[in-house]
Amino acid sequence: MTQTAAPAAHSKDNPFPALVTENRLLNPPGCAKETRHFVVSTAGSGLHYKPGDSLGIFPSNRTCDVEAILAALGATGSERVLLPRAREPVGLREALTAKLSLAGPTRRMLETLAARATAPADKGELAALLASGAQETLSAWLHEREFLDLLEEFPSARLSPQELVDHMRRLVPRLYSIASSQRVHPEEAHLTVAVVRYKTNGRDRVGVCSTYLADRVGVGTTPMPVFVSHSKFAPPQDGARDAIMVGPGTGIAPFRAFVQDRTAAGATGRNWVFFGDQKRDCDFVYQGEWERCLRDGTLQRLDTAFSRDQDHKIYVQDRMRENAAELWNWVKAGAHFYVCGDAKRMAKDVDAALHDVIAGQGGMSQAQAIDYVSVMKSEKRYQKDVY
After folding, report:
1. Measured between alpha carbons, how far is 96 from 98 in angstroms, rounded to an integer?
2. CATH architecture designation of domain 243-386
3. Burial class (CB in 10 A: 0-12, 13-18, 19+), 278
4. 3-state secondary structure of 126
5. For position 5, what pLDDT does the model report?
6. pLDDT digits over 269-290, tens only?
7. Domain 16-59+173-229 classification at class level
8. Contact yes or no for 353/324 (Cβ under 8 A)
9. By CB atoms within 10 Å of each CB, which of 243, 280, 285, 349 scores lowest?
10. DSSP letters along 195-237, please?
11. Where do the structural domains in the chain lie, given as residue ranges?
């Protein structure tokens, strides 16, 4: 008797075609930011996640950008091109839509254009950009541009489809912290996404995946390739331990999952959330949920910092220092400390504040505070998910 092989588990190499069942704007009308709550159905996928894990999404580029590149190349889109590490060629339109990043041109692209340019004006500008000593100017110039800009700004430098593709990077999946507990939502994964829209070089630009979710994935209609990316970032295994969670902006996403999961699991440890953004009226995402958690006792403390609601800016690290004595009481009693969000400034400022609180309240030198935090890290009591 012939046995049928079991279907392969869904993974990065075999993503699940999920449907978005909810796309909800979290900011009130008229606010500067666009933060959205997405519900992704995982029904029938066999995907399992825990709090702290991320959902990987393979996005596609905007049709208008793809068509503009084809027009600049003088291509139909049916031309066959070979991608790096690929065995078989694919159609150019498919490659530009779902396989390649349309942003991030490099010096090598300009060198190729310089070799192809025939118009004196194109040759002159390219030579100036590539001149020795112009590295800073070139870097700033490229930072403002995508591949389409270069093709349109140097029209005499004709490239074949394959030559263009050879300069482009793969379009990689984006990872978003899952904002729900599978104990509470067994067939869903929730996401909290800041939709990126901006302008450079006189053109409207977008974050590829955030606008893919917001604009190009139809609710209940467009299959979206997804997978789960597992992480060591996780709530305390011991449900009796307290958890202190610092998550400004969309960094709040995993902590929504933490609190949901700890509540569903019957954890007895206390929960303390620090949240911050620019304006309370516009940017306090999930405000109603957090206030309900405070009322029902699943959240013991919620401290917020809205930087632009007063003359002097207030951030989450300032709230930590304001509550130094209580924060130290939780930490010295064994609380786990978590940070999620911006790595460049926020996470560093929060880390400095934590060291200061421990040194000041614990009567330690800075060196002793550093050692104390190192022990917290080794015990997995201090974890970061930063980007």
Report:
1. 6
2. 3-Layer(aba) Sandwich (3.40)
3. middle
4. helix
5. 52
6. 999 999 999 999 999 999 999 9
7. mainly beta
8. no
9. 280
10. --EEEETTEEEE-HHHHIIIIIS-TTTS-EEEEEE--S----S
11. 16-59+173-229, 63-165, 243-386
User: Percent of the chain scored above 70 by pLDDT?
Assistant: 98
Write the pLDDT tens digit of every residue in 114-125. 999 999 999 999
Alpha carbons 378 and 387: distance in angstroms, whole number: 21
Best CA proximity match to 246, nearest among 217, 214, 278, 271? 271
Q: How confident is the model at residue 85 (pLDDT cuts 50, 70, 90)?
A: confident
Instruction: State phi, psi for 263 to the nearest 5 degrees.
Output: -65, -45
Strands 16-25 vs 35-41: parallel, antiparallel or unpaired = antiparallel
Sequence-ordered list of residues with C-beta below 8 angstroms from that of 311, at least 6 positions apart, any chain:
none
Quick one: tokens of 237? 């295994």
Between 1.10.10.10, 1.20.990.10, 3.20.10.10, 3.40.30.10, what CATH number should domain 63-165 receive?
Answer: 1.20.990.10
Specify the pairing of strand 243-246 against strand 336-341. Answer: parallel
∠ CA 377-379-382, rounded to 5°: 40
Q: Residue 98: which of 191, 8, 212 has the closest Cα?
A: 212
Shortest CA distance to 192 belongs to which of 322, 290, 90, 331? 290
Count of helix runs (H) and strand runs (E) in the chain: 15, 15
Amino acid code (one letter) for 378: S
What is the reported pLDDT for 8? 67
Structure token pair of residue 5? 């092989």
Map residue 383 onto helix, strand or coil. strand
Does pLDDT of 6 surpass 60?
no
The distance in angstroms from the start CA to the end CA of the chain is 52
Return all residues near 4 (Cβ < 8 A) that are at least 6 apart: none
Q: How far apart are CA 52 and CA 56, in angstroms?
A: 13
Q: How far apart are CA 350 and CA 339, in angstroms?
A: 8
For the beta carbon of residue 227, count every other beta carbon within 10 angstroms: 22
E strands, 152-300, are 174-177, 188-194, 197-200, 203-206, 224-229, 243-246, 271-277
Phi, psi of 328 (to 5 degrees): -65, -40
Confidence at residue 143, expressed as pLDDT on a 0 to 100 scale: 97
